[in-house]
Amino acid sequence: MGQQRITRAECAHVAALARLELTDEELERFAAQLDELLDHVAEVEALDVEGLAPTMHALPIANVLRPDVPGEVLDRDEVMAAAPLAEDGQFRVPPVLGEAP
Amino acid sequence: MSTGILGVPGLGAPADTEWETVVGLEVHAELATETKLFSASPNRFGGEPNTHIDPVSLGLPGSLPVLNQKAVELAVRVGLALDCRIQRSVFARKNYFYPDMPKDFQISQYDEPINTDGWLELPSGKRIGIERAHLEEDTGKTVHIGGGGRIHEAGYSLVDYNRAGVPLIEIVSRPELRSASEARQYVAELRAILVAVGASDGKMEEGSLRVDCNVSVRPRGSDRLGARCEIKNVNSLRSLGRAIEYEARRQIDLLSSGQPVEQQTRHWNEDDGRTHALRSKEQDYDYRYFPEPDLLPLDPSAKWVEQIRRGLPALPRDRRLRLAEAAPSVDAGHIALAVECSLDELALAAMSGGAVPERVLTHVVHNLAGGPGQLAAEALADLVQMEEAGELTATQAKKVLAVLVDEGGTPRQAARELGFEAMDAGELEALVDGLIAENPDEWSRWCGGEAKLAGFFVGRAMKATGGRADGKAVTLLLNARRSCESGSA
Q1: What is the ipTM of this complex?
Q2: Is A56 inside any structural domain?
Q3: What's the CATH code of the domain at A24?
Q4: Would you list the domain boundaries of chain B?
Q5: B90, B157, B232: residue with CB nearest A93
Q6: Could you give the CA distance from residue B52 to residue B35 in angstroms, rounded to a whole number?
Q7: What are B36-46's pLDDT values in tens digits?
Q8: Domain B425-488 CATH class label
Q9: Residues of A in contact with B279 (CB under 8 A)
Q10: A76 belongs to a structural domain
Q11: Do B40 and A72 make contact, defined as CB atoms within 8 angstroms?
């Protein structure tokens, strides 16, 4: 294998974005695996796609729409009973600091 | 540094002529559908928390989104009204962790939005480019509950998902606005368009229209964009103007003293009138967009788009032109206001009945702010004609109008009920002669050329009749009496 394109630091960054806690050994292993994925992408990139329309979705259909008609809503008490913590009909969560992204 | 009008250094100081402000706006508008973007829960403002929820809005495992046809139609209407290209689009996942989105991603459109490349014309005639107008889902609402006053207790948050999944259209302008005032005009015009095409109720106070602004400054004459800051939490047109003015001044002060502007997201604080940086760590977003596998591409047919185009109502710009044509002598501000308040149809109908445009527009702009109520166009036309004929004074006409708005009916009847029968000529003459006799000193001074004393006599006439006298008729009579006197002298 040539020079590794996905570094350990990049692997750690992606893991942090996904809120995954990885050990040193896992970081090494997954960095190498992500690197192999790039090899696969390189193979796809090498194909001649001249004149081919890009595929946006695996299914060759578009415009699956539903009419704007109200349907059933969930029973709030039932939903709240399933929540880890609830208060006044709302989900209670750890303090949210700062702005929504 | 000078202290400006708002007690904030620099604010209120005259615009710095060496610098140019550059503004681009991102406007989010909630679409006026019955249901959410991807599920059948009601899209309704207010309501008890978590009563407009379903498995999709809660992101429950196994739930799948299905796109709302009406939301697409409204997005196309907006695209057409802004002269955008309507194109094939795909939805994408914007990934982030925050409790306002229980799926841990928001479904939005990313590199292939439904509408691109349009423009909006400001009332001044200047065109502002629209980069895109795409569909996405709204998020839930979080409320922070304090920690009982103790600093070490961080408190907690409560989440309501009624708004999660409500359809939004995000309209992104090009950075072509050049002042706080232009930005306000842009949002006012965009809101008028959204309301006119039925896409949104445009209520900033209920959060159905939200504005984020990107502000930068550059030396006047430069064609390069400076580092920009994104301002969030702007909740009214007024705060939009204030936030942009504050932020531009802050950046000019930094650059003038040789410091760089750091590209960042800032939060507008209405109370202290300043923008504040968010902690930089929170700004380091990486959303890892990828195509939403649970939704299919959207590709409105040319036929459908054409059908929607034919159903579009007249846009505010066209309505202003039409009203201005019918009332050429009326001030452009009054024309714009009449259209903004959706009173242009009423005004046109009254004018087509022969009513004088200036008087009609004066009533529309000054006396119908609360809406026309029960007022019929014909009644407005009659009222204006009674005024024109001197049967009603301006003060009386205003009172009659208030009755017509509340109760409907004809102005003649309302005037009778209010006791506003016009004074007949004899009664008016007796009144004026009486006033002359009672105030000989003022009379001779007025005859001697003290012009402002005309107001004294008109005022007395009004007082004596409780406003029934027509000021113009009184003035005419006074003039007639004076020329009689000078003729006989």
Answers
A1: 0.87
A2: no
A3: 1.10.20
A4: 19-307, 316-417, 425-488
A5: B157
A6: 9
A7: 999 999 999 88
A8: mainly alpha
A9: 98
A10: no
A11: yes
